[in-house]
Amino acid sequence: MSSSITVAKVLNNNVIIAEHPQYAEVVVIGKGIGFNRKTRDRINLSSVEKMFILRSQEEQEQYKQLVPQVDEKLIEVVQEIVLHIMQSSRQALNEHIHIALTDHISFAIRRSEQHIAIHNPFLYETREIYPEEYRLAEYAVDRINEAMKVSLPPDEIGFVALHIVSALSNRHISEVKQHSQLIGDMVGLVEDNLEYRIPRDSLDYSRLVTHLRFVLERLRRGETVRETSSLDGLMKREYPEMYMLAWKLTKVIEQRVHIPVYPAEVSYLTIHLQRLAQKKEDESGMEQQDSI
């Protein structure tokens, strides 16, 4: 087998498309790798430090169009981040992350330079739903700020985390965003009904978001939930208001993801909601005592 690759296209001084003896077309990244290179030039594989494969022809074309439009240093930093994610998660990533993350960060840097702030309304939900991916995104944003001499805001951590989730789970970014937004909307619905703002750093908030996440994950995987008619009857009888709120939440889920929710989910969700309602009552009682 040949121990060299052949230059197919030079994208810039640091990025080339090459023909690999085993993997067909590959993207090769390295400082000066494309400098003075011409099509059909051969490069010894031992001198290649960073390389990845874009198997999809569509992905290849998108990457070829994207690279000339972004800072060459950003290409290297994103590749470094992608390698870090792969090593930390010990999982393969969907190849689209090379395009999606590069494009997103490039646009975020331009917004930052123009002082255009984009608020992430689901930052807390994303951190609770995807804690590992959020930590990887924190590393990514810190590394970008350091390497590119920029100051991307914390909101960007949430956006980057969703791209990481998408790449690790092979789910389209729109689906991942939909789930985060849905959970955020449901938390808002709970707070409106209870007239109680759940502290974002509280265990109650973490429990509620985690439960809602698992409901969505069970639906996505097509898992059934064992029926508990005795529990259902008890919840409906003892906590009618929270049971009705739980029923409303499951209907919101059905409307948004177009998958029927098993009735047992209502009972389990009622337990979480009743805990929150009790917490609100306890805090209200303490405030009244303090005012006496």
Produce a short descriptive summary.
The protein has helices at 57-66, 72-89, 97-113, 123-129, 131-148, 155-169, 173-194, 203-221, 229-238, 240-257, 264-291; strands at residues 4-12, 15-20, 24-29, 42-44, 50-53.
Describe the protein's topology.
Blueprint: E1 4-12, E2 15-20, E3 24-29, E4 42-44, E5 50-53, H1 57-66, H2 72-89, H3 97-113, H4 123-129, H5 131-148, H6 155-169, H7 173-194, H8 203-221, H9 229-238, H10 240-257, H11 264-291
Antiparallel strand pairs: 1-2, 1-4, 2-3, 3-5
Q: What would you say this structure looks like, in words?
A:
By secondary structure, the protein is of the alpha+beta class. It contains eleven helices and five strands. The chain has helices spanning 57-66, 72-89, 97-113, 123-129, 131-148, 155-169, 173-194, 203-221, 229-238, 240-257, 264-291, and strands at residues 4-12, 15-20, 24-29, 42-44, 50-53. A five-stranded antiparallel sheet has the order 4-1-2-3-5, covered by helices on one side. A hairpin with a 3-residue loop joins strand 2 and strand 3. Helix 2 packs antiparallel against helix 5 (131-148), helix 3 (97-113) runs antiparallel to helix 6 (155-169) and helix 7 packs antiparallel against helix 10 (240-257). The radius of gyration is 24 Å and the shape is elongated. This is PRD domain-containing protein.
